[in-house]
Amino acid sequence: MITSLTCNACSAQIPLTGTRIICRVCANYDLCTSCHTLGRFSDSHEVQHETLVLYPPTSISQDPYHVPPAPPPPLPPRSNSSSNNEEINPRQLPPPLSTRILSTTGKLLSSNNTPTKRLTDISDAVFAYLNKTYPTANQHLLNPGHVANFYELMGMPPEGNVFGVCISVMNGLGSSLDNIDPEIAHFYDQLGIEYSLITRASATPGGLPMVMDGMPVLSHRGFRQLLVCEILEDPGRMHSVFGQLVRWAIFDDRGRAFEEVPWGMFPAEPDPAFVVKVTAVAEEFGGRLRALFARLKREREEEDLREHILATQLQQQQMHDQRMAAMQLSIQAQQRGMEAALKAI
């Protein structure tokens, strides 16, 4: 049984329960965290090669980009001129103007469609908000459930929240969420969204073995790339989404609440080439999901049929055993009657 791997740079043993880095270009190339951090490589591996960080099932490592949720800014003094004595919900009061982040200049995307500092600040704050609102063992990563929650917060209708639909269908079928992980990872690959693979910490239905290093999760960088995709596809919709930042009570790492992001910071119109690409990706993703759901449904029906047959056979066997037991008792009673009759003669 394999319990560890060997770092290709320093030859140190990497336990399967520890964090390791794999190269997506070189075949069977693993690095320990020390060599990856210090930039120690060997063989044909190069620093520009794309890598994946594989975390242990329930590890919580320090992410240099993580922005811990900050406490809300102090509320302004309550006015005494109110005509009634009703208590005001503090969450309904916006923070003072001096503590708000004004968005009057600049763009969210650079000329090559990469996130600017403004979008990075917003993305990191939303990232921290999702982790705080929906806590998990890996507070520095967003799993598919987090992404589903984000689209729900965006106001996405249930049928349009594909991640939420996937989770609901899996729960309805009683199937492990591990089944949808390869499809979500493929979706990220098609859109060029960076992700890592970790192991789900929760138990699987029916005691099935967990899939190691199978769940795709987003770091801060991957989540920014997801927002860039959304902006390029439909800047008008994302303008409305970003307008909800105040209502969500989202703060940056300095405790400042976000002001509404003006329309001028968004692209004037969707990116035509990207719209064509994302449409094709969405159609393929939908087709793969429909095939997966159909297969899982068929397997579930076959399993239900097998269980029904076994239950019927068990019931028939029990009825047979009961009849045989009753017949045996009847024979024994007849024998005792005959013995009594013979003694009486």
Care to describe what's here?
This protein has two domains: 1-57, Wheat Germ Agglutinin (Isolectin 2), domain 1, CATH 3.30.60; 101-321, no CATH class. Helix content is 45%, strand content 8%. The protein has nine helices and nine strands. It has helices spanning 33-38, 117-133, 144-153, 162-173, 181-191, 220-233, 235-242, 245-248, 272-344, and strands at residues 4-6, 13-15, 20-23, 30-31, 51-54, 100-101, 196-198, 215-217, 257-258. A hairpin with a 6-residue loop joins β1 and β2 (13-15). It is elongated and about 120 Å long. The chain starts with a strand and ends with a helix.
What's the helix and strand layout?
Layout: E1 4-6, E2 13-15, E3 20-23, E4 30-31, H1 33-38, E5 51-54, E6 100-101, H2 117-133, H3 144-153, H4 162-173, H5 181-191, E7 196-198, E8 215-217, H6 220-233, H7 235-242, H8 245-248, E9 257-258, H9 272-344
Largest sheet, in brief, is:
3 strands, antiparallel
Distance between the termini: 78 Å
Strand content: 5-15%
- Arrangement of strands in the largest sheet: 4-3-5
Label the overall shape: elongated
Rg calculated over all Cα atoms: 30 Å
How many helix segments?
Answer: 9
Question: What's the short story on this structure?
Answer:
It is built from 9 helices and 9 strands. Helix content is 45%, strand content 8%.
Describe this protein with a few key phrases:
9 helices; zinc-finger; 345 residues; Wheat Germ Agglutinin (Isolectin 2), domain 1; 2 domains; three-stranded antiparallel sheet; two-stranded antiparallel sheet; Znf_ZZ_sf; ZZ-type domain-containing protein; elongated; mainly alpha; DUF7514; Znf_ZZ
